[in-house]
């Protein structure tokens, strides 16, 4: 079922959903199931599965030179989605990214997903590689998420890359895209970022999932700005609790978001062993306010921390 159909069927009730990471290379589906099994109690209609592009390592050779070698640390997104759907009977949403794929590989991936009955995707540009200062697309690959959305939408209309294909079988993907309540770090300003988001919706995206945030004021400002710009698709807030004191520095550095002063003040005077409790309480308060504001779904970035996620959802 399409994600937007779940929102319509809920008749105003706020749903919950979760995002999981593929296990590191050498891991197994048991790692995923151990995260999701307890969370199935909350009847999520869908699960997101991230995709991570290849990274590079430099191995020193006997000659003294370094050889650049591509590695994939977290393989298996499509297989994981199929396993989740088989085990739990719910929809799984693979992340589809620009990085690491050219347009032909993207089309082939979408054909495979369509064959498997996976008809929801989250279309993202993806991050730059670890040692690159900006995102660099593959040769004949997409530079922006909006172009990826256009390709998926073309296939929904039976339009394939091979112009010789006439009356191709149309796919039926529901396309989600990312939104940034505090703006994408590469956007020159908040208003321009909203314009870019509108382009993705106009290109065929049907719902938005936001980056994590810790101040609901930012989400409400973002939602209001979307409405003012003519964006009227469901907007799903993405949530993650503070669980370690060092995250006060690492999360802003990695995700380019801010912590509200009230949370920072409390965290700085809280012992390390009690930070998780503080983070849970703060996230629960966020969720209650968001539910009262009528959001269609609360989307939790589990990052493998099932216990903390469970404690939050149990309370709301």
Write down the oligomeric state.
single chain
- Say what the CATH topology is: TIM Barrel
DSSP strand count: 10
Helix segment tally? 11
Strand order of the largest sheet: 1-2-5-6-7-8-9-10
Mean pLDDT: 91
* Unreliable parts: none
Order of helices and strands: HEHEEEHEHEHEHEHEHHHEH
The percentage helix is: 25-40%
CATH architecture, please?
Alpha-Beta Barrel
Estimated share of beta-strand residues: 15-25%
State the gist of this model:
This protein has 11 helices and 10 strands.
Task: Give a quick set of tags describing it.
316 residues; alpha/beta; TIM Barrel; 8-stranded parallel beta barrel; two-stranded antiparallel sheet; 11 helices; 40% helix
Describe it.
This protein has 316 residues and is α/β, with parallel strands linked by helices. It has a single domain, classed as TIM Barrel (Alpha-Beta Barrel), CATH 3.20.20.220. It has 11 helices and 10 strands. The chain has an 8-stranded parallel barrel with strand order 1-2-5-6-7-8-9-10, surrounded by 6 helices. The chain has a two-stranded antiparallel sheet with strand order 3-4. The longest helix has 18 residues. It starts with a helix and ends with a helix.
